[in-house]
Amino acid sequence: MVAIGNIVIPESELVERFVRSAGPGGQNVNKVATAVELRFDIARSPSLPEPVRERLLARRDRRITADGVLVISAQRFRTQDRNREDARERLAGFVEHGLHVPRARVATKPTRGSKERRLAGKRERSTIKQGRSRQDWD
């Protein structure tokens, strides 16, 4: 079970697969499946409120498949338990990101001074470039 704020994700919604890790561990790495691949179906999860689900699915994250399944791979540590904890912490962080509603952007006009500075810069650049091209070699 993973708890994030007022959202609780039960064990039944998490799919864990243990695979061989590529990290530290010497010969142990070739024998023991310590890496964890955690899968969480964002699109079909009944524990996520609809606005949070939409925000999470709208994120452009390479860990989300086309079906809306979040795949987290954890192999930082040498033990399966620690990698499992790490994967769950990363899932909690990901879901927590979806809890925050982004503030709407307020459109603003550029100030008169900023317009003048921009145009002055353009004029300056223009004169520099004109100076490079117009050369009388007579």
Automatic annotation (TrEMBL):
* Keyword list, A-Z: Hydrolase
The record's GO molecular-function terms, alphabetically, read:
peptidyl-tRNA hydrolase activity; ribosome binding; translation release factor activity
* Membrane-spanning segments: none
InterPro entries given for it?
A: Pep_chain_release_fac_I
Looking at the record, the residues that make up the Prokaryotic-type class I peptide chain release factors domain are 20-36
Question: For bias kind Basic and acidic residues, which ranges apply?
Answer: 113-138
A Pfam match is RF-1
UniProt cross-references to PROSITE patterns, sorted A to Z: RF_PROK_I
Annotated segments matching region Disordered: 103-138
Q: Which Gene3D superfamilies match?
A: 3.30.160.20
* A GO BP entry: rescue of stalled ribosome
Q: What is this protein called?
A: Peptidyl-tRNA hydrolase
The protein's organism comes out as Lysobacter concretionis Ko07 = DSM 16239
